[in-house]
Write a structure and sequence with these properties.
Blueprint lengths: L2 H23 L11 E6 L6 H11 L2 E6 L2 H11 L7 E5 L1 H9 L3 E2 L4 H6 L12 E12 L24 E3 L5 H14 L1 H13 L3 E2 L3 H9 L5 E5 H10 L6 E3 L9 E10 L5 H12 L3 H6 L4 E2 L8 H4 L11 H6 L1 H10 L4
Parallel strand pairs: 1-2, 1-3, 6-7, 6-8
Antiparallel strand pairs: 3-10, 4-10, 5-8, 5-9, 5-10, 5-11
Helix pairs in contact: 6-7, 6-14, 7-14
Bound molecules: fe (ii) ion (FE2).
C-alpha cells in the first residue's frame, strides 16, 4: 500500500478510536435537540447535573459532559486537536485555566455579559477563561485545642509553637501551589521560601484530600489545617455539629487566599455559540445554582452565597489577579521542592 495512504488510514483509525471513546463518554450525542448541544470536559463534577438540567430547561440546549483530572482533560483536548468534541474546558484552580490558555487550547471570548458579571481579578485579562465561583483556602482549627486568638496568618503557621500540630495538603496538589504562588506575589521568592521552610520545620501531616484533612482535625489528630472553605460547608451540611471551625486568614493585611473554578471555550469548539451561552448563563441566571451546588462563593458579586457559607461571616479577600497564580505556578513548584515540602 502507498505509504502516504497507509499513514493516512492509520491516523484515521486512531482518530476513529478516539472518537469512539468519546462517544461512549457522551452517550446521547446522537439525540441532539433542535437547539443543539454543548459539550464540556470538566474536572468540577460535584452536583453539576441539576445545574445543566436547568440550563437545558431554559434554553433547550442539551449539555453533555465528561469528567476527569484537569491535566488529563487538557491533554485530551490537545490530542484531539481540530476534532475535539469539547466546547468548554471547565476546571478548578486558576493555574489549570492559565495552563490551558498558554497551551493554545482556549479561544478568547468577547462577551459584555461575562465582563459585567465577573470581576476583572477573577478572569483572564485576554478573555480566554472566566472564573465562575470562588473558593477560599484558609485556616481551620479544632475549637477545643486552639483558641481563635492564637491564629492570624498562613505565614504565622511557620512559628515553632505549631510543631507537630499542622495538617496540610501535599506540594503536588495545585491548591498548595496556588497558595504558595500568592505568597510569592505578596513577599517575593526569598521571603516566601523562608515561610515555607518554617512550615516544613513544623513537620505537618500531609494528606491529599481536604475532606480527610478536616476529618483528621475533627478526630483530634492535629490542631490547625489549611483547606478550602467548601469542604467544611459540605461536612456541616451533613452534620451541623462537625467539630471544626473556620478562621479567615490574613485579615489585617492582604486578605484570605481566593481561587476559582472557571471555564473557557476551546479553540476548536464545534458548538461555539452554545458554549458562550452556557458560560453567560452560569455567570448570571444560573450563577446561584452553580455556586450553591458546591457551597462556593459566587463569582458574580450581585449573587448571595449559600446560607451555610454566609454563616462563616464576611471577610477580606486577597485581590491578586487569578492570572498571577498561573504565571507563578512553576516558581511555586520549584520553591516547594527547594524547601523540602513534599
Ligand atoms: Fe476541591
Amino acid at each position: 500500500m502507498n505509504t502516504m495512504l497507509k499513514s493516512g488510514l492509520e491516523r484515521f483509525g486512531i482518530l476513529l478510536a478516539g472518537t469512539l471513546i468519546l462517544l461512549t463518554a457522551l452517550p446521547s450525542l446522537a439525540l441532539a435537540s433542535p437547539a443543539g448541544v454543548v459539550n464540556l470536559y470538566t474536572s468540577r463534577h460535584y452536583g453539576v447535573e441539576p445545574v445543566f438540567a436547568e440550563f437545558t430547561r431554559v434554553t433547550g440546549i442539551q449539555v453533555r459532559f465528561t469528567t476527569g483530572p484537569d491535566a488529563m482533560l487538557r491533554e485530551r483536548i490537545r490530542a484531539e486537536g481540530r476534532h475535539t468534541l469539547a466546547d468548554i474546558y471547565l476546571a478548578v484552580d486558576a493555574g489549570n485555566l492559565w495552563l490551558a490558555a498558554r497551551d493554545g487550547l482556549l479561544q478568547p471570548v468577547n462577551s459584555r455579559t461575562l465582563q459585567q458579571n465577573i470581576p476583572a481579578t477573577l478572569r483572564d485579562p485576554g478573555n480566554h477563561w472566566f472564573g465562575l465561583t470562588q473558593r477560599v483556602r484558609t485556616l481551620m482549627y479544632h475549637p477545643e485545642r486552639v483558641r481563635p486568638e492564637e491564629l492570624s496568618t498562613y505565614e504565622a503557621l511557620a512559628d515553632p509553637k505549631w510543631r507537630g500540630r499542622l495538617i496540610m495538603r501535599p506540594a503536588t496538589h495545585s491548591y498548595t501551589q496556588s497558595l504558595v504562588a500568592s505568597m510569592i506575589a505578596a513577599h517575593g521568592e526569598a521571603k516566601a521560601e523562608e515561610i515555607v521552610r518554617g512550615w516544613v520545620a513544623n513537620q505537618p501531616t500531609l494528606i491529599d484530600s481536604d475532606t480527610r484533612i478536616l476529618e483528621t482535625l475533627a478526630a483530634g489528630k492535629g490542631d490547625v489545617a489549611i483547606t478550602n472553605h467548601y469542604y467544611l460547608g459540605r461536612l456541616l451540611q451533613a452534620n451541623p455539629a462537625f467539630p471544626v471551625r473556620i478562621f479567615w486568614a490574613n485579615q489585617g493585611e492582604r486578605g484570605a487566599h481566593v481561587n476559582i473554578s472557571g471555564a473557557g471555550v476551546t479553540t476548536h469548539a464545534p458548538n461555539r455559540e452554545n458554549a458562550i451561552k452556557l458560560l453567560e448563563w452560569l455567570s448570571g441566571q444560573g450563577q446561584k445554582l452553580f455556586a450553591d451546588s458546591n457551597h462556593e462563593y459566587p463569582a458574580n458579586p450581585a449573587v448571595e452565597p449559600h446560607q451555610i457559607i454566609a454563616g462563616f461571616g464576611s471577610f477580606n479577600r486577597d485581590q491578586l489577579s487569578m492570572a498571577e497564580y498561573g504565571r507563578l505556578q512553576e516558581a511555586a513548584v520549584r520553591l516547594l521542592d527547594r524547601a523540602g515540602y513534599r
